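Incident log, structure service

09:12 report received: a user says their structure output differs between two submissions of the same chain.
09:20 pulled the input from the user's history:
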Amino acid sequence: MKIQIIALCMFAGTLVVSCNQSSNKQISETTNDTVSKQSKAKLQIYYFHLTNRCITCNSIEANVKSVIESTYSEEIKQGLISFESINIQEKENWEIAEQYETANASLFLTLNTESGQHTSDLTSQAFMLSKNKPDEFKQLIQDTIKSLIK
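09:34 re-ran on a clean worker, output below:
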C-alpha cells in the first residue's frame, strides 16, 4: 500500500510540478559538529531525475560529471567519490527517493563517515546556474566537494 501511495504521489508530482521547482533545504545528519574520521569518508553524489528531462536537467548531470571526472578522477578510482544518476520514476529507485524526500529532479552530495552523515542539497543552485552559468555551477560543485572532504 505504501509503495502505491508513493507511486501515486510521484505521478501527481510530475504532472503538477515542473522539474525546476524544488525545495531549498539543507539536510544535515552529522552526529558530530566536525567530521573527524576523513580517512574512511566517502562522498556520494546523487542526481535524481524523472524519465523525461529538460535541457537544464541534462546540463546538471553533464556538469557534475565533468567536474568530478576532471578534478577528482583519483578519488573516484579510490572509491572516495561516486556519482549516481537515479531515475525516481523507476520502481527500484523509490526507496532511495523516499529516503531523500524527493519526487522531482534534485542534487544531493552526501558525505558518509564513521562519525555520521552530512548531506548538502544543491538543487536550487543547480537549476539556477547549470544551464545559464555553467562555470559558476561547476565552481559551486568543486567548492562544496572541497568543504565536505577537507
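09:41 both user submissions now match this output. Likely a transient worker issue. Closing.
09:42 reviewer note: The first strand starts at residue 28 and ends at 30. The chain has one domain: 2-6+39-149.
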